């Protein structure tokens, strides 16, 4: 087969979740039906690699030294919400329930995968949270084992520095039917029940 | 979010089978964990779009005017095997049961998708098959409805020009247990039964 086709198939396998068969199918598709798309993707990758860095304040992807969210003066700079990824931040933004600033870990603690405190930029988080303006840190890491462990670790670390730390509430999801919700979630919802 | 990140996510959606969530996950993964892979993929796409064209004889992807397979003098140039895609050709090569040449349609007839005879290069196939050297054309399109219809169409077309046309045998797959093979396949295997 053509050498640049082999190279392209090999390169497509660097995408997460793409195996040899999908890579081949993608390469054939682009060359047969969407060369314009292929050229566009090539440029987009090049540009992103060149231009995208991390925001000096919140650590998310940004093309400027400080991202637009951190620069937005209408936001409440006494609140800092810690999330694992930019996608998580977007989800929280969509709820319109939070007007503070963010810190994006770009990962979670995962000792089994060799991901320790340094890999999720905790030094940078400490510096950011201890700026004297932030009064509350909301931990919004995932409610998975790793996310919970990460939240616990950060909580201990920040409380030792005198900061107020909170965590998103756990409980039965909106629209959830008790019959189909797992027992662990119901147990947590019972323990965290609120007066009405 | 960073503009070049948006552009990258948009461009990744041009890949077949990639929706908005996967595209975002891919973009984040490349920028966070594999910038080298992203740069490599960018180059691979660019190179492939520039270098890969179609073989003048068999219509498969090639960087030269005529592909290596067509140039290989050890192959039997009296046999021509018609397949839908380069992937199908590779599968047949792996069986080591065929030593002739190929013609790659780069598709199949599919009136519902607006794919007619012109889109699968049948004019080029006629020219190739009628070169005076080819004596048998083996139809190896898929055994789907569309593949069968394509084989039928090509068969009529080439037989009208006096060429011998054959089709891969249908029947129970190797390792197949009758209990789990569909009735259509068993019916075909019964009709096509062979003396032992």
Automatic annotation (TrEMBL), chains A, B:
Residues 78-173 form the Toprim domain. GO terms for molecular function: DNA binding; zinc ion binding. The keyword DNA damage applies. Coiled coil: none annotated. The keyword Zinc-finger applies. Keywords: DNA damage, DNA recombination, DNA repair, Metal-binding, Zinc, Zinc-finger. InterPro entries: DNA_Rcmb_RecR, Rcmb_RecR, Rcmb_RecR_Znf, TOPRIM_dom, TOPRIM_RecR. A zinc finger (C4-type) spans 55-70. It comes from the Bacteria. One of its GO terms (biological process) is DNA recombination. Belongs to the RecR family. May play a role in DNA repair. It seems to be involved in an RecBC-independent recombinational process of DNA repair. It may act with RecF and RecO. This is Recombination protein RecR.
